[in-house]
Amino acid sequence: MTAPPTALFEPARLGPLTLRNRFVKAATFEGMTRGSQVSDDLIAFHRRHAAGGVAMTTVAYCAVAPEGRTERHQIWMRPEVLPGLRRLTNAVHAEGAAISAQIGHAGPVADPRSNGLPALSASARIGAQSLTRIRAASRADIARVVRAHADAARLAVEAGFDAVEIHLGHNYFASSFLSPLLNHRTDEYGGSLAGRARVARAAARAVREAVGDRVAVLAKLNMDDGVPGGLWLDESLQVARWLEADGSLDALELTAGSSLLNPMYLFRGDAPLREFAAAMRHPLVRLGVRAVGGRFIRAYPYEEAYLLDSARQFRAALDLPLILLGGVTRRETAELALAEGFSFVAMARALLREPDLIRRMEKDPGTRSLCIHCNKCMPTIYSGTRCVLTADSRSGPPA
Which one of the listed residues 172, 189, 302, 306 is annotated catalytic? Predict the structure, then answer.
């Protein structure tokens, strides 16, 4: 059955890019970069999604500094990774898709035990996952991290990426400054929202100045942190307005939740505590997840387009192109997003289950995702991100 023409499957502009349709493979840490290098498995992972029909696939996650990794095997953007990154971008381009590098600094979400380097945040705290002290970033640290965003973006251009996505969410480095809960500073980087937004805006400006219009520049921004006292929608809307006024971005991908304090707020559906506990590297953390993990890894009921209501408020307030994320598994949901003024939709878990879902949606409007939102894919991120319910090799673990 051939589907009728639809804007979903027509070319669309994203900054200097023309993408072949409106579907973006959202960033999901692949767990396929041992030694902080590109692997054949990482290339195969993104090539599958490109062949499956997405307009652009997002490599996650490319840290801008060695201490900014959530664990030591993540890619750290440096000249040594260029040959592997070029092989990766060439492979995706060969399938007719574009490729984006998600760049950022994990901040308090980084694992200092794994990295062998101190983790940084807006203010000092104890890391719940690493059980180590997280240091408050100095002004020198902030300046270095902002410069590192620019350097990483330049490297991404040299490697052949078509876009860079700046990670400003999930209580990573920039997001920790945005959060009133995590930012207790009394200098120019704390206090008022303008002070707390200074790092995010500086990083976005630095990236734009570094790449010009050679690639598209996106940012992933929390609409809310999903924790009491954290960043909430009214303040996030103002940050988005400032980012738009700065002229640094070609689009904004709207997200929610805190990898540090409430990780399942973004990933609606089941909370697989047993699998999460088994994936924890630190014995005490593993024991803690088994004993009281339900207080931290809370389950939220799944519903289609679960971030749409919040995202509508951003659409009403901004002219900047927006990417809708969260519970997009059906063609009619993507059609609704475009009808409401969103420029693109981003998908992740459904594509882990079925990398060819977009091509099948194009051919048959009645196609339904097989994803059951069990979230058992999430604990696989350090062993090769995959759908655990899929038996074939399309989204299987690395060799």
Answer: 172
pLDDT of residue 379: 83
Q: What is the pLDDT of residues 315-358, one digit of tens each?
A: 999 999 999 999 999 999 999 999 999 999 999 999 999 999 99
Phi/psi for 351 (5° steps) reads -80, -25
CA–chain centroid gap for 246, Å, is 22
| DSSP result, 36-100 | GS--HHHHHHHHHHHHTT-SEEEEEEEESSGGG-SSTTSEE-SGGGHHHHHHHHHHHHHTT-EEE
- Band of pLDDT at residue 382, cut at 50, 70 and 90: confident
Residue 170 bridge partners (DSSP): 258
Q: What does the mean pLDDT of the chain come to?
A: 91
- Residue in 65, 172, 62 with CA at minimum distance from that of residue 115: 65
Question: SS3 for 366-394, per residue?
Answer: CCECCCCCCCCCHHHHHCCCCCCCCCCHH
CA-CA distance, 338 to 310, in Å (whole number)? Answer: 16
Query: In Å, how far are 91, 143, 158, 215, 321 from 161, measured between CA atoms?
Result: 11, 25, 8, 8, 20
Active site residue 61: no
